[in-house]
Write a structure and sequence with these properties.
9 helices; elongated
């Protein structure tokens, strides 16, 4: 059993602890139902709070960034859905050589140009999954954010966020 699996089991145990307590302490079905609803509402509030906190951190980082980073983000925001938009197109659009653009991004953000573009696409995909009012499937979202291969999208999403897109959708729906 690898450590990440054990950590996941411990996390699930912590999540289920209030539910177990509710079952053990309740003799009244209405009180049990109420308590379970409170537990579920709290978990939804926690998830929403975490996502808002994460977005606030990202926005704060954006405000502190240099004009180069602002231009880079603006460029990727405009072109992320174009699957043909890659490192070469980014460098050409920003007016720098590949090595200079890579050096600037590595210095300021600690990532390569390719990882910068891919990370942005993955964050947009996560937002699309989170606010999926049109009930688009994961493959469609992968294509919408510039990935040509849904399997590669799933691998990248899992590596970036620690769970697959379908697991993420499952967490949202529950």
């Amino acid at each position: 059993m690898d450590q990440s699996y054990e950590e996941k089991l411990q996390y699930v145990d912590r999540l289920l602890e209030p539910v177990r307590d509710a079952f053990l302490k309740s003799e009244n079905p209405e009180a049990l139902q109420h308590r379970l609803m409170v537990v579920l509402e709290n978990s939804v509030r926690f998830r929403d709070s975490f996502l808002q906190s994460e977005e606030a951190d990202r926005q704060a980082a954006l405000r502190k960034e240099s004009p180069f980073i602002e231009r880079a983000i603006q460029l990727v925001e405009q072109r992320y859905s174009d699957s043909e938009f890659g490192v070469e197109e980014f460098c050409r659009s920003i007016g720098m050589s590949r090595s200079l653009a890579g050096k600037r991004l590595r210095t300021e953000l600690g990532v390569s140009v390719g990882l910068f573009i891919r990370g942005y696409r993955l964050r947009v995909a996560r937002e699309m999954l989170l606010h999926n009012d049109n009930r688009r499937n994961i493959t469609e979202i992968a294509y919408n954010v510039g990935f040509n291969d849904p399997k590669y999208f799933t691998r990248c999403f899992t590596k970036e966020f620690g769970f697959s897109p379908s697991e993420f959708v499952g967490q949202i729906d529950s």
